Amino acid sequence: MTKKLRIVAAQLNPTVGDISGNLKKHVAAAAKARDELSADLIVFPELSLTGYPPEDLLLRPAFIADAERALQQFIDEIKDIYCVVGHPHKTARGLYNSSSVVYNGEIIGRYAKQHLPNYGVFDENRYFIPGNTHSVTTIKDVPVGIVICEDLWFPAPTQQAVLQGAKVIVSPNASPFEIDKHEKRMEALSKRAKANNVPIIYANQVGGQDDLIFDGDSMAVDAEGNVVVSAEMFKEELMTVVVDGSAIPAQAVIPAQAGMTDRIYQALVLATKDYVEKNGFAGVLIGVSGGIDSALTLAIAVDALGKDRVRAVIMPSHFTSNLSMEEAMAVTNNMQVPHDIISIEPANEAFLSLLAPAFGDKKPDVTEENIQARCRAILIMALSNKTGWLVLNTGNRSEVAMGYCTLYGDMAGGFDVLKDIPKTMVYQLAHYRNSISKVIPPRTIERAPTAELAPNQTDQDTLPPYEMLDSILDLYLNQQLSIDEICAKGFERDVVTRVAKLIRINEYKRRQSAVGPRINHTAFSKDRRYPITNGWKA
Fold it and tell me: Is 405 a catalytic residue?
């Protein structure tokens, strides 16, 4: 007779460092899994008590002590359900990234992560030492093995557990969202399950953490590698899986996976919501220009926070066209967002007057354009200081890459929603948002992009067409191709060389830019750590 095991994967949204708040989430989830879902076992994500990634908080002894006290409190409080809880575990040898099996006041099993990722956004070798042993715990006569996150991507940890008798693998995870991460996870889980003829329950955290987005995407695959249960992405959920022996019968309708643009939009909404709320801001301010970037940022903010927690600030100059004013008003009205209109002209004229003696007979150039952008920064940051609301930047990845932005001007603010979104994708996201409800005016999407800091100015006066630029940026940044390799694909050398130069010389700006949600595996964050002083030009 086979043994049935009812397992819940707790797709929770923790806050890094909020150990007491995370503990409350654990207690509530475990109680619900036990009392309402009749679960035998609940699996929490990787480092679930501390939130992931805790980074250098792990270097503080008091932080480790707080995590240990929280684990003990959880052990003391929750009874009559097996729990796999993620936490740092300090020993005489060092610190481990561990998950402990807790039941009725005791730790009855523990596993330490063996493969510590140290690439891209991950830096686990800085904090942890690797484990080197399996962990298999018998739960209601079913041997259950634990394999943490990165360990799933390597053969040995799962093989070790199965060789020690595991009939089911549970995998606590803190796996960040990337554009194609869902497909990669499914492939890795399917491969590992089929190779070992064992079902795998994958429990991933959800939520925004600074530039990282955790999409959840928890799922269960059977021993043949088929996905038989999955959680909804970007939402907290307790996903229930029934394991019958070493099989997982099909148990539920698997939610249809959102398209890529849909996923990216949901990711940006979640990242914005969590950054604002986890950092204690009551609302956000957005400089709305009548262009597509600020319109999309406004839509994302309203979807994340609600219209009552978003305020638009329209800051025209004498270069601002009637079209821009009309479009700025249209999008704020469509989103039902309150707004302020504050002209920058008095401030701009005052600065030019002050600087006139020092400028002498030098001709106007980008200097005067940057003064306008910095006038806007002063105004919106003053409103931020007075209200306590966070300023959301509106710069996209293409502009950030090229340095097509003003330091201490339009780069001012605390969170850049589109920082990792290429300009061409901005248009895709705008069309996607309008497919839900038409909030971004058609003329905003159709008009030529412009900063409106000079007469009849368009972005293409300075930059290559965005379709070409984004293709080059993808090859150079995402695919890491050299200038020669990109030119071999048919792009003009002078254009590619200029793009590469602008990326290189604007690193100093990016170092001072606001954090923004990461969707690429080579975002301008921890993924890409280039020197500011850099003489290499290939």
Answer: no
User: What's the pTM?
Assistant: 0.94
Q: Which of 202, 227, 255 is the last residue of a domain?
A: 255
Question: Does the active-site annotation cover 452?
Answer: no
Please check whether residues 130 and 40 belong to one and the same domain.
Answer: yes
Residue 68, number of CB atoms within 10 A of its CB: 16
**Contact present, 118 and 97 (Cβ < 8 Å):** no
Q: What is the CB neighbour count within 10 angstroms for residue 484?
A: 10
Separation between Cα atoms, residue 130 and residue 113, nearest integer Å: 6
Residues 151 and 171: their CA atoms lie apart, in Å, by: 9
Number of domains observed in the structure of the chain: 3
% of residues, the chain, pLDDT over 70: 97
Residue 518 belongs to some domain of the structure: no
In a domain, 538, yes or no: no
- State mean pLDDT over 184-211: 96
**Structural domain span for residue 482:** 464-505
pLDDT for the residue numbered 347: 97
Q: Catalytic residue among 113, 181, 419, 423, which?
A: 113
Whether residue 535 lies inside any domain: the answer is: no
CATH number of the CATH domain containing 404: 3.40.50.620
Beta-strand ranges (E) seen in 188-328 are 200-204, 206-209, 212-215, 219-221, 227-230, 237-244, 284-287, 310-314
Span 158-186, pLDDT tens digits = 999 999 999 999 999 999 999 989 999 99
Higher pLDDT, 250 or 224: 224
Tens-place pLDDT, residues 106-128: 999 999 999 999 988 999 999 99
* CATH number of 133's domain: 3.60.110.10
Instruction: Report whether the peptide linkage leading into residue 53 is cis, meaning its omega lies within 30 degrees of zero.
Output: yes
**Of the residues 25, 83, 149, 405, which is catalytic?**
149
Q: Identify the active-site residue in 25, 46, 369, 399.
A: 46
Mark whether 83 is an active-site residue: no
